[in-house]
Input
Amino acid sequence: MATDTAPVATAAPAAPLWRRLLPVVVLALAIVLVFASGLHRYLSFDALRQNRQILQDLVARHQALAALGYVAIYAAAVALSVPGAAVLTVAGGFLFGALEGTVLVVIGATVGATLLYLAAKTALGDALRARAGGLVHKLEAGFRENALSYLLVLRLVPLFPFWLVNLAAAVLGVPPATYVLGTFVGIIPGSYVYASVGAGLGSVFDQGGEPSLKGALTPQVLVALVGLALLSLVPVAYKRLKGQRVA
Output
């Protein structure tokens, strides 16, 4: 009598080490190339002042192409963790206006941050978690349970470097969809603040003044960002209160 045998599921073999490390190696080589060629020096207010007319003419004649190029440059700068993202954000407001500049910044930053997150997750995430101690595993479990809320807090409050949050999310196992959503939403307020500064940068140049980012995050702005961050923690507090009631 014939008997049916169910197929036994086998785990997919792990990707070779070289394939997992390839994204990080490519990013590292790109970072070396950027700094060796001096391209990072163009992310400054002086470079923006010197090339002001050329950039404005380019945006006026080819706005869609200029916007696409700006997003690509921003994404590359974030993925490579090149210093000067704040200057790029101000430049977005200067060239495209506060509202459109914010949209382009958020898209570019989200794409770049996601590329870095995926590269770190592929090459380092699983390996670091496998070698981590109990404390890291506890942090991972707590973070993943409320990943969106915690990620929004980290994005809204500018306490930690942007690249560090990208790597931490990869190591702590934040799901990709949650990471993209938290990054996209969390960087909108801060991006709008800096883009608004950029929208008034033309008058600073006309008067011969020196642009500065020191006055961008005023006490009022910081209070608003902290308030949004606390609002993001409401679901976490609700879960804990609900758990206590059930217990």
The CA atoms of residues 99 and 122 lie 35 Å apart. DSSP finds 14 helices and no strands in the chain. Residues 18-246 form one domain. The chain has one domain: 18-246.
